[in-house]
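The records we work with from here on pair a chain with its fold. These numbers are not coordinates but entries in a learned vocabulary of local backbone shapes. To see the layout at work, look at the sequence and tokens printed below.
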Amino acid sequence: MSFHLVDPGALSVSDVERLFELAALAGSGSLLLDKLRGSSVFTVFLEDSTRTRISFEVAARRVGAEVFDFCSHGSSLSKGETFEDTLRNIVSLGADFLIIRHSDGDFFDRLLVDFPLDAHVISGGHGARHHPTQGLLDVFCISKYNSRLDDVSVLILGDVVHSRVARSQVQILKTLGCKDIRLVGPSSFLPDPSKDVLFSSVNTTSSLEEGLSGVDVVSLLRVQRERFSDNENINLDEYVANYGFKRSHAERLKEGAIVIHPQPLNRNLEISDDVVALPCCKFFEQVELGVFMRMACLVWLYNCL
């Protein structure tokens, strides 16, 4: 039987805690090395990626798997083959894992019901819906600096409504009992809690100054202009003035507070260039933790331990 990692809402508290435990083991040395020797991992990305794709490739090799990268350019998709048939062909070639990134947030709902695959499927991000491994590694990073996640205060700043990362972060934080999640951004970037149950118990405000008060974590988001509808627009100068994270904001943070970002960074848009190197910013540590978390996800799904 194949298990999948697509919706972080399907993870229990014990699931997340086990993944954190495995990620910690991955970071401590060789305990997860070669656990998947003989298995095959295929990365199948229909959207651009740097960290997620390469991170999965590094993670898979560290646990002993063979790694194959599917490139849509030059594939039979250009000849009329459906993406679902492409995936079924890849599984027939011996794939044990499919790491899939897709622009459609509903893609996996259809795929896993209408086209069941005899392989472990992991979302590398789908539409504005979810990015489960990014959410896991972000909260894993938060847990390194905050021993009690049920008592942590997290501010998610920016383009929440278009962000699959934000949705996954909120879902995992809520699973672990976090009670103080704040969303800050212009009103057009904030979800309507009455229409989306995931955000029904979070606090939203358009005031960055208000949202920053007493927080333990600031999670910055990229402005995802590629997901704007035709009638959406934003004045970037106004956005930088009101919501760009600047040194003055970093200096207001309490001792021990951290700033995270899934990257890519748009310097001097969502974050000032002079803030990136401050000790509170954990962006590149997140990248390292991402390899450990993805090693954990592969081993956990394969049920090797």
Summary: The chain has a mean pLDDT of 94. Strands lie at 40-45, 66-70, 97-102, 120-126, 153-157, 180-184, 203-205, 217-220, 258-260.
